Amino acid sequence: MASAPKDSIPVEELTYEQARDELAGIVATLESGGLTLEKSLDLWERGEALAAHCRTWLDAARTRIADTIDDGEEDEAE
Amino acid sequence: MSLESSPEEPVPVRTVSRALADYIARLGAIWMDGQVAEFRYRQGMRFQYFTLRDTDVEMSLSVRVDAAALGRLDPPLTEGQRVLVWAKPDFYAARGSLSMIAREVRTVGLGALLAELARLRDLLAAEGLFAADRKRPLPFLPRRVGLICGRNSAAMQDVLANARDRWPSVEFEIREVAVQGPQAVSAVTSALTELDAVSDVDVIIVTRGGGSVEDLLPFSNETMVRAAAACTTPIVSAIGHEQDAPLLDLVADLRASTPTDAAKRVVPSLVEQSALVDGLYARALRVLSHRLDSEVQTMDHGVARARSIVLSRLDAAATDVMHLQARVRVLSPAATLERGYAIVLNDQGAIVRDAEQVATDSLLDIRLAQGRMSARREG
């Protein structure tokens, strides 16, 4: 969806920490102001993508834990 | 006076015989204490002969006595009897044989024998041979069990059966010996000393069945008792019936009332021991599984805590991302678009601010608050 800036890494390949840090960077850049509309539009879209990536990762992590809890319960249930 | 002789000047036999006769005669008449070993009354003969054996060791002398002298004995002389003999040594030169010519033979009565036994007991007790602190503990599981008993005696069968019943793999070192009569003392004593020397015999049982006081006397004999005391291997004595108490009982490291009792004392019971071991094993298992349970609990507790920590961090992270995302939106054109504006970009991705810049039929990229569209300029 976002037209990723040429030099940046596709969001999917980023780790959670990398995505989150880049997102924080984007916020800082937007907060400093003085950006062209295009630039701020691109940053906004990259930011949305990074946020989505982070949330997906966090949800996945939560599911993994839920699975282990289920596994755990299955063990005890045996 | 010793005889001078040499290969060159040998001495004739007669001279040696006379010298021997002379030496022997010098002993003179003497009262001897011994046991009648062999004796067969020869009807109508003037002289009777019997073998007089030492009470303790394998030494004997042949004795000749007038039938009349024997006749006075009541009860008559019998083999195995303890006697006092007053006799003079006689060397019969013709055949070079020695015999004791007895002038008087007295049987030692039971009373005398028991009195002697009591005297001996006090003597040995005074020497501390019966002291409790001398008693050696029996080994828990002897490598081999020494067994001194009568030939194929019931006592032997009892010990073997009962010991094997308790500990099937028990090994014995058996000495079947005379347990009665003149040979008993020396036989049992040498068996004791012999078994004591066997390195892997860790305990020795001396046993015989019941019998008369005389029958059991050998087991109160000083030589045997001292031999037992000298043994380094623990000794279990099981002599006669419950009420019999020969001196060997007092010097033994353990007195068993019967051969069966002796067997029970020298080997542990496999059944009991394995039950004991099983019990210990079960207890160990219980302790171990209890420990494991608590370990698992601790671990579960640990895992639970780990989970809660991670989950809370995830929550925090999610919140953090949401904040960042909200910030991005606020600081970006999103707010303007939310109000209904749209941004038009040409096919180079640049924002179109002047309609003139856009050629008809060229593609346009239109960004809205939600999503984007492409369009083509017509008019």
Characteristic key phrases:
heterodimer; A: 78 residues; mainly alpha; 2 helices; 0% strand; B: 379 residues; OB fold (Dihydrolipoamide Acetyltransferase, E2P); Rossmann fold; 4 domains; 41% helix; rod-shaped
Might you state the CATH topology name of the largest domain in chain B?
Answer: Rossmann fold
What is the tally of helical segments of chain B?
Answer: 11
Order of helices and strands of chain A: HH
Spatial strand order of the main sheet of chain B: 1-2-3-5-4
Largest contact between chains: A-B, 27 and 25 residues
- CATH architecture heading of the largest domain in chain B: 3-Layer(aba) Sandwich
How many structural domains can be distinguished in the coordinates of chain A? 1
Q: Give the helix level of chain A as a range of percent.
A: over 70%
Radius of gyration of chain B: 54 Å
How would a crystallographer describe the biggest sheet of chain A?
Answer: none
Low-confidence stretches of chain B: none
- The 3D shape of chain B can be described as rod-shaped
**Helix share, percent of chain B:** 40-55%
Low-confidence stretches of chain A: none
Largest sheet of chain B: 5 strands, mixed, barrel
H-E order of chain B: HEEEHEEHEHEHEHHEHEHHHEEE
Distance between the termini of chain A: 47 Å
SSE layout and pairing:
The complex is a heterodimer of chains A (78) and B (379).
Chain A: H1 16-32, H2 37-77
Helix pairs in contact in A: 1-2
Chain B: H1 13-27, E1 30-39, E2 47-53, E3 60-66, H2 67-71, E4 82-92, E5 97-107, H3 110-126, E6 144-149, H4 154-166, E7 172-176, H5 184-197, E8 201-208, H6 213-216, H7 222-230, E9 235-239, H8 247-251, E10 254-255, H9 259-266, H10 270-331, H11 334-338, E11 343-345, E12 363-367, E13 372-376
Parallel strand pairs in B: 3-5, 6-7, 6-8, 8-9, 9-10
Antiparallel strand pairs in B: 1-2, 1-4, 2-3, 4-5, 11-12, 12-13
Helix pairs in contact in B: 4-9, 5-7
